[in-house]
């Protein structure tokens, strides 16, 4: 039995090595420690928003999210709460909708405006027009969080992943991944969990 | 939490180890579980389905009714399931729909599309813990598919066409 498992593992390794390029899952995009690009994207209020606009920020919670994904919807209130907690501490939420509205009409700019008003978003909610920004970050799903720390060398990626460990029920959360990361960053401490995964909606290209 | 899986294939499994700790919550869950037509698994009870060592090749597809590209590829999995049954291939459609959608979305969808492949529900909120146990390279996006038999396994975090699915499956059955 053990030999079989070892053989299976070997086969897996060989197989992975022999993977056709078509299926190589190269998630291009940022890793921890990379410098994230700035952008100029249109907010639901019609103004263009860039990270460089926030002169006094210590960092950013760049969150790729949208109107139509059930997981994004489940996190709307928690994203508002993150902004309420961390904007005063210098780490505002910047939400970006990466979906192509032509493929997903529910994620159109007009629909974004409506949703932002309904949910009283306290943060910029930007449309990644032409879908140029999310691939640079390497976002693959919504919601997908990137915590950036502003340094003299640019905005450095400190955390990538989910907001917390329970998408379904905020009251059952045991580990607040993003809050722990921001708290550690602001305290100048090492972030213990720097990447997490979650089921999410694939980004509609 | 109490998870009851009541499959039509007689694979009934009860796991109520925490029932005493949270009796009220467990009651609610078991009631909900009984009403849903598909077996409901937490990851612990689901994991053995990813490591069967019989002679079959398993195609485990992770999907949800709200996931459009998942819905697009479902007919290909259905087709392969029907065509390859005699080749010792089994398709298992693992729904990641949320509990609120089981009765309202999932059941009507499976009925309307008349899905013949086995449909089960994976209901485990600790995604960051179990996603890497399905495949180390999986970021959590769906559709995602695992093909495995006792000798090898491959994981695809992407949609597959009918041709791609067959091409990949052929590496297992030929």
Spell out the blueprint of helices and strands.
The complex is a heterodimer of chains A (205) and B (174).
Chain A: H1 2-18, E1 35-36, E2 41-43, E3 48-49, E4 59-64, H2 70-86, E5 93-97, H3 109-118, E6 125-127, H4 133-137, E7 141-142, E8 144-151, E9 154-161, H5 177-186, E10 200-202
Chain B: E1 3-6, E2 12-15, H1 23-35, E3 40-41, H2 43-46, E4 57-63, H3 68-84, E5 89-95, H4 99-113, E6 118-122, H5 127-134, E7 141-142, E8 144-148, E9 153-156, H6 162-173
Parallel strand pairs in B: 3-6, 4-5, 5-6
Antiparallel strand pairs in B: 1-2, 4-8, 8-9
CATH class of chain A: Alpha Beta
Main sheet properties of chain A: 8 strands, mixed
> What Rg of chain A is obtained from the alpha carbons, in whole angstroms?
18 Å
User: In terms of per-residue confidence, which ranges of chain A show pLDDT below 50 for 5 or more consecutive residues?
Assistant: 13-26
Description:
The complex is a heterodimer of chains A (205) and B (174). Chain A has 205 residues and is an alpha+beta fold. Chain A has a single domain, classed as Glutaredoxin. Chain A is 29% helix and 20% strand. Chain A has 5 helices and 10 strands. Chain A has helices at 2-18, 70-86, 109-118, 133-137, 177-186; strands at residues 35-36, 41-43, 48-49, 59-64, 93-97, 125-127, 141-142, 144-151, 154-161, 200-202. Chain A has an 8-stranded mixed sheet. In chain A, strands 7-10 form a two-stranded antiparallel ribbon. In chain A, a hairpin with a 2-residue loop joins strand 8 (144-151) and strand 9 (154-161). Chain A starts with a helix and ends with a strand. Residues 13-26 of chain A have low confidence and may be disordered. Chain B has 174 residues and is α/β, with parallel strands linked by helices. Chain B folds into 2 domains: 3-41, no CATH class; 46-173, Glutaredoxin, CATH 3.40.30. Chain B has 6 helices and 9 strands, in the order ββαβαβαβαβαβββα. Chain B has helices spanning 23-35, 43-46, 68-84, 99-113, 127-134, 162-173, and strands at residues 3-6, 12-15, 40-41, 57-63, 89-95, 118-122, 141-142, 144-148, 153-156. Chain B has a 6-stranded mixed sheet. In chain B, strands 1-2 form a two-stranded antiparallel sheet. In chain B, strand 8 (144-148) and strand 9 (153-156) form a beta hairpin. Chain B is globular, with a radius of gyration of 16 Å. The chains are: A alpha+beta (205), B alpha/beta (174). The interface between A and B is medium-sized, with 35 and 34 residues. Strand 10 (200-202) of chain A pairs parallel with strand 7 (141-142) of chain B, so a sheet runs across the interface.
